[in-house]
Amino acid sequence: MYTLCDLAHVSRSGYYRWLKTADELDKDYDDYLKVKEVFDQGKGNYGWRSIKMRLPEMNHKKIQRIMRKYDLTARVRRRNPYKAIMKKRMEHRIFPNILDRAFDQYVPFTVFCADIAYIPFQDSYAYLSVVKDIASGEVVAWNLSNGLEEALVLDTMRNMPRTRENAMIHSDQGFHYTNPQYIAAVEALGLAQSMSDKGSCIDNAPIESFFGHMKDELDYHSCASLKELRSRVDEYMQYYNHERKQWTRNKMSPVQYREHLLTKSSVGVGFQSVH
Q: Are strands 124-133 and 139-145 parallel, antiparallel or unpaired?
């Protein structure tokens, strides 16, 4: 080997560096072909998020690394001046973290949390918007859509139950929840807004926990259509709220526990809310 390096006028250290790089290229090549196929389908416009939605089984960090490694750079869209004007007219707003991980709540219809989950099924994908009552654990409103438009969360808010005075809703800082339309909908319901600190999913742990259980228990991958997925999600919500007993809630379902809390409250047992 050393003789061949001398004949080719290549240093031994350079040869071993090349050898290591070649091994790494071979290791990523199969995944590169998958990413490249999706990238080409998007005519060079897909970034890593768009590719992740079409390759849900592949880790997003691997997609980003492969795109950097093989120089798969999405074309940057030209800025729409009309959108820029609208953004200036309707500024998105960030709210402080009022909830501050005070998850031990005992008064139903007072403190809620909201989030959106990505739900892949057979040949497509959808998004599930959910609002959960932190005290009872009940999912009080939800909406499923194959798009991420603002209507996804606005329609969810239209399904909200009647809330108590000084109630609050907590979310992350996603664009849906900072949108002026959502802010107006929250204010119309008499709710105060609270938001997680950026990049801190534990600030919204109750709803992250719900999505974790749902994805473990619901067979969504085999759904052949959005209609079938919606039916299964609706069935699961009924099961989760009315039948699925929870150890930390006196072995009651969320609806049973909600009635239990309301009964205790009505007979004068004092509860403290986050406020």
A: antiparallel
Has residue 271 got a pLDDT over 50?
no
CA distance 191 to 215: 29
- The Cα 27–Cα 115 span in angstroms is 36
Structural domains of the chain ordered from first start: 2-69 (no CATH), 88-266 (3.30.420.10)
Given this model, what pLDDT does residue 275 score?
41
pLDDT at 267 over 90: no
- Give the whole-angstrom CA distance, residue 98 versus residue 134: 14
Instruction: Look up residue 247 and give its DSSP letter.
Output: G
As given in the structure block, the two tokens for residue 200 are 């801190």
**Given strand 192-195, what is the order of strands in its sheet?**
139-145, 124-133, 111-121, 168-171, 192-195
Please give the C-alpha separations between residue 97 and each of 135, 176, 249, in angstroms, as whole numbers: 18, 17, 25
The answer for residues whose C-beta is within 8 angstroms of residue 257's C-beta and 6 or more apart is: 136, 137, 138, 246, 249, 250
Distance between alpha carbon 92 and the CA centroid of its chain, in Å? 19
Q: Is 268 exposed, middle or buried (0-12, 13-18, 19+ CB in 10 A)?
A: exposed
Q: Is residue 269 very low, low, confident or very high in pLDDT (cuts 50, 70, 90)?
A: very low
pLDDT digits (tens, 9 = 90+) for 71-89: 888 876 555 655 655 555 5
The predicted pLDDT at position 268 comes to 43
Contact indicator for 176, 182 with CB cutoff of 8 Å? yes
